[in-house]
Amino acid sequence: MNEFPKVAVVILNWNGLKYLRQFLPSVMSSAWPNLDIIVGDNASNDGSVEFIKQEYPSIRVIQNDQNYGFTGGYNRVLMHVEADYYILLNSDVEVWPGWITPVISLMESDPLIAAAAPKIKAYTQKDHFEHAGAAGGYIDKYGYPFCQGRMFYEIEEDKGQYQQSHEVFWATGAALFIKKHCWDEANGFDDRFFAHMEEIDLCWRLKNIGYKVMYCAESEVFHLGGGTLNVENPFKTFLNFRNNLLLLQNNLPFWRAVFIITIRIWMDLLAIFRFLGEGKRKDAWAVSRAHQNFVLGLLKGERRKAVQQQTEKRRLQPKHYPLKGIYNGSIVWAFFKQKKRHFTELDPKDFL
Description:
This protein has helices spanning 17-28, 48-55, 69-78, 100-108, 180-185, 198-208, 234-251, 254-277, 281-297, 302-315, 331-337, and strands spanning 7-13, 35-41, 60-63, 85-89, 93-94, 113-122, 137-140, 145-147, 150-151, 154-155, 166-168, 175-179, 212-223, 326-327. By secondary structure, the protein is an alpha/beta fold. It has 2 domains: 7-223, Spore Coat Polysaccharide Biosynthesis Protein SpsA, Chain A (Alpha-Beta Complex); 234-316. Strand 7 and strand 8 (145-147) form a beta hairpin.
């Protein structure tokens, strides 16, 4: 790179004072010569804003008037941020000084690269990958997301098995690098998601209009995870099941979406029975509510129409196809029936 693009690290915060205290020092040590560090706040009431203004006066704070979630929060905050690159960074992520350079260098190498993420490892077990992104995201033909280094609840130790940067299907929202003009072209996140899987939807829409999404193995960060919604929270169960259906609705052709969503709803019924069998009645009800919410939302359809118009407009321009990172099989079948626990056990021939 002859010049240093303007980079903005944007941390969205909601009552995360303890994480700001713990992790902001590492972010402040980031070694990039043309860098802004910004905290967008979703109407916190725990003293977060006051802490930043007092302890880190160089950090710009952009305040929302209420908690708009991850999607709405970032959509509103980034309207006020000018940069060549946005880095959407969770407040519970530890970074090292040189973490930005490898990712930006990779993205600068190809104008078709819209988004990328570094290797995501666990803050509490730093020789292992972390659930939210690991070594790059993939998706199967039924819309189930998984990662290099993480399939369902199975987390791999990092033994150098994913040391090659390459194109993937989605980049984690825990440390998402995205070119501003690509963010604008895709119209940011879909507000309906609120939180969870919104980055998969964004990456899928970017790929549908001709861009690439990359995993950068030369950079790594450490994610604590579960800071806002832990795994046991039924609201998280609701968001995961509801948003997975929105993901398919947004990005698949109409009749393909109808077919796959019908299959997914039947598969989700198995999840309901599993939750009931484990005594998790609130989670079972959360899955049912997710289905109800999705069906009611089908009557609106404004977002899908906007997504389709955007995609059709770009289809007339040079495209990057196929959509690399799709597993042309069922990851549920591979994991639970064939007992394939690691990404490397999947047949490379089954990937697009």
